Amino acid sequence: MKSQRITIKYIAERANVSFSTVAKALHNDPVINEKTREKIHKIAKELNYRPNVLAKGLRSRKTKTIGIILNDLQSPFYSEIYKAIGDIINKRGYTMLLSDSSYDEELEMKNISTMISQGAEGIIISPVARDSVSIRALIEDPIKAVFIDNRPSNPNISCVYVDHKEAARIATEHLILAGHRNILLLNGPLRLPSSQDFREGYVEALISHDIEVDEKMIKNNPISIERTCDQMRSIFSGEDNIGKADFTAIVCLSDVIAIGVYESALQMGFNIPGTYSLVGYDNILATKYLNPPLTTVHQPKEQTGLYAINLLLDEIENGHNEHRQIILNPVLISRSSVGNLGRNP
Amino acid sequence: MKSQRITIKYIAERANVSFSTVAKALHNDPVINEKTREKIHKIAKELNYRPNVLAKGLRSRKTKTIGIILNDLQSPFYSEIYKAIGDIINKRGYTMLLSDSSYDEELEMKNISTMISQGAEGIIISPVARDSVSIRALIEDPIKAVFIDNRPSNPNISCVYVDHKEAARIATEHLILAGHRNILLLNGPLRLPSSQDFREGYVEALISHDIEVDEKMIKNNPISIERTCDQMRSIFSGEDNIGKADFTAIVCLSDVIAIGVYESALQMGFNIPGTYSLVGYDNILATKYLNPPLTTVHQPKEQTGLYAINLLLDEIENGHNEHRQIILNPVLISRSSVGNLGRNP
DNA sequence: TTGTAAGCGTTATCAA
DNA sequence: TTGATAACGCTTACAA
Hints:
The structure is a homodimer of 345-residue chains. Chain A is of the alpha/beta class and 345 residues long. Chain A has three domains: 3-51, lambda repressor-like DNA-binding domains (434 Repressor (Amino-terminal Domain)); 60-163 and 301-328, Response regulator (Rossmann fold, 3-Layer(aba) Sandwich); 164-300, Response regulator (Rossmann fold), CATH 3.40.50. Chain A contains twelve helices and twelve strands. In chain A, helix 10 packs across helix 11 (255-268). Chain A starts with 7 loop residues before the first helix and ends in a 12-residue tail after the last strand. Chains A and B meet through helix 4, helix 5, strand 2, helix 6 and helix 11 of A and helix 4, helix 5, strand 2, helix 6 and helix 11 of B. The first copy, chain A, binds a DNA duplex (16 and 16 nucleotides) through helix 2 and helix 4.
């Protein structure tokens, strides 16, 4: 298995020319004689020559590699985003380096380091925090980056994100207009910028409708079905600081959390929207087919990915240097998980 | 922005030692004096030194990079698999190169080439076909590979897969035992090995219960919600060679196809399981919460990923050379999308 | 204990 | 039109 590696040097031997001639021929450099060019191409093809990207990158600084750093590879939310990114990356002849930070700053830092080490020409990242060591490191590094999903506090970064505050406002208001006044917020960990924004939107909606904000009604938990079930169980069992009769509706930071509520409904025997009305966020594929179909706020995920990669490639290939911020709008998708309490006309 | 790149050479200058001393110190080579070692580490840390993986890989042939090639990054089926893979890869200090072949052999070939070019030390691939130019190329190359999701025809390849034939048999038999005899098979494109296997299992189940196999009842379409809706619509409109009354149950090659049937039910106004009983395959997360909850055949996706990456890393790191084939078992998850026709006790 | 030097496979410059 | 050569940043004998 000590099989000879196919390099331009090896091709040169076979073709009886110098390796630099081979290099030029392979790049279709017009200085090379048509005949030799063809001969060399033929040999390369026969030997199934594959240029060594490492050597190439080392020498030319061009690796044609883009790093994508997200927080949860498995989440349908993120997968729609990087599906869109991946398609473009492929089409444009790049390769995608992908990694998962799992909402952990240390891991994020490591991921960024690795990608830079690997010679990624650019990075698209869904940052764990609005500002952090890793983000500052990223900005200092001469590597191009586009942030998605969250607005970084430093304005000198290109980014594409949906206005989470507005999303929460829309979702909460929808419930208020359906007559709900005691609305539970199933939020994510408060250290996440999206959770902070979402919370703000929720509060704003309540206030603008003269509803008092009760801190006990805001629950911050990791974004997962299991943890959501734990939360609901603790409310039902009386362990929590609120009881199951203290609210009539639930807003969730993400559809995954909303699915956790569906699971809880199954486990604890309550009904959606009979017992609780429910609004999610993201509009992931499955929500349409849930029982009942979930009312949720749509995030343009494909668009996010598309904008992000186009911005990045533009910066890389055309040396674009001014930073652009693209804010996308959330839109309410009304389905059947919200019941009308009939207080409002 | 012409910022000085931090290399061992640069650190060497700062530390007043030769660059090879730096290299050794950074590797904690015991021949280096404790004092100088510490000094060098300190400087490296201050300068935020990141080894250039390209140079490293070029010289040492170790890139710590694993390539993952799948057919549909967005599908929850695949994302569970590479989530599992990604976790291990990260934990073991590797990086993941990910790409999507979209069930296209040409793209697959390109993806393999790219990964080899990039110096990936190993590849985990869900192959488009059981045998193909790209697969043969992959075997000839000295790169380690593990196939998942499908059994390749060449036995000299490590692989991890679920027995799709058995899965189809279980699914179909489940319907037969519920009294169904006219069962529509919503299969994938016939060029896909999984479709071929699935078809076999379906046929086997029918035969073993003395039900005649009707080719018209087997539909091969791309695996997507949209194409499934198209198929159902053509049956309902009479354009197809079977009519809507010709069957009472449906088996699907994947849960995504099954979701397409749910969508069709919505669009065309039929009922599950009232009009048609339905069995899916994969047991993706959402199936449990569909309306009605989908009866499906579970594929151990996380296990698939885990086995695959462990096999691969074992081959890479321990030079394991014998190839191993791991076959995983599908298991029926009975929920509420199958109605009993009452013919059997 | 530290330093010198060759080489990994390219690109790119200059000379022939 | 072709060839020789240096350089990219690192690893790794071997020499000092």
